Automatic annotation (TrEMBL):
<dbReference type="InterPro" id="IPR016181">
    <property type="entry name" value="Acyl_CoA_acyltransferase"/>
</dbReference>
<dbReference type="InterPro" id="IPR000182">
    <property type="entry name" value="GNAT_dom"/>
</dbReference>
<keyword id="KW-0808">Transferase</keyword>
<dbReference type="GO" id="GO:0008999">
    <property type="term" value="F:protein-N-terminal-alanine acetyltransferase activity"/>
</dbReference>
<dbReference type="GO" id="GO:0005737">
    <property type="term" value="C:cytoplasm"/>
</dbReference>
<feature type="domain" description="N-acetyltransferase">
    <location>
        <begin position="6"/>
        <end position="169"/>
    </location>
</feature>
<protein>
    <submittedName>
        <fullName>N-acetyltransferase</fullName>
    </submittedName>
</protein>
<dbReference type="GO" id="GO:1990189">
    <property type="term" value="F:protein N-terminal-serine acetyltransferase activity"/>
</dbReference>
<dbReference type="Pfam" id="PF13302">
    <property type="entry name" value="Acetyltransf_3"/>
</dbReference>
<dbReference type="InterPro" id="IPR051908">
    <property type="entry name" value="Ribosomal_N-acetyltransferase"/>
</dbReference>
Amino acid sequence: MSEETVILRPIVEADLGALGELVNDPQALGEFQWYGWRDPQRHRRRWAASGLLEDEQVMLAVVVDGAFGGFVAANRSGVRPSAPYWSLGVQLVPGARGRGIGTRAQRLLVDYLFAHSPVMRLEADTEAGNLVEQRVLEKLGFTREGVQRAVTFRGGEWRDVVRYSLLRTDPRP
């Protein structure tokens, strides 16, 4: 059995229906990503304006053997204008989970961000209970920096997140 081909590419118009369904379906988003109903057309409007490739935010399709499998995203952040960094994440359609696709997609995003921007630091965080994503980040070479208490509100309660970072100079597996 051959390994599935996973690539990243810009979101195309044909992806917008699946993207809209994914981000507006509590069951599809899964245990750690549902934050309530939001404007279902927000990504379509941003895509029409910028292709979801903006200076401060990038969203790319995760394509698995030619089919839309979810997306990766990175937001430019930073305390100082002279030292920006990217904060990244991933969301896969339910059928693409549990097969290493998220790990490969995030590795491709890390490679892309370091190749096409001069940032020194990448960041990622996940809820303290999301042990799967924590393992993925550690597998990618991210360093656990600590727990930030009560950072996100989901499901009627405040939740802690675990913050990770990867520096351009860090060894990568």
